[in-house]
Predict the 3D structure of the following.
Amino acid sequence: MPSRRSDLNNLLKCLQANGDEFPNVQVGINDSMEYNIGTKRNIMLKEALGKYVVFIDDDDEVSPNYVSLILEACKQDPDCIGINGTITTNGHDLRKWFISKEFGKWYTGPDGTYYRTPNHISPVRRELALQAGFPEIAFGEDAEYSKRLMHFLRTESTIIEPIYNYKYISNK
């Protein structure tokens, strides 16, 4: 979105810092305003060339070693990669979250930690992501994709180090 162009530029700088090290990593951007987010994600899945795919929302942040840790986990040839990080809501209320197929569903722990099954920010085999596909809707496509994807996942590698800061913006 045009209003988040500076966020995208910051994210690209972080990813490009490792660009020379990882020439086989493809970064795709779909800034079209004519499609909803689910449709955009499906288009990008079809255009991707790699064995694994992962989405980073333009207003989120990743760790400086994000790419190297994912590539290392991919060496085990899993269906998906479990990751973790932090989330803020409107810049406040910092919480931890974990993503793994082992959780079986989305839920919140008693301490406020979020537990999720693999979704759009999880590295996943492209062939499985294509089979699951995103619903072509503007909101909630990640949760539905996560449910669909679970049917295809058998193996998982896990990255222990936090690698993703999800900046949730609530319109409420």
About this structure: The mean pLDDT is 93. Residues 5-16 form the longest helix (12 residues).
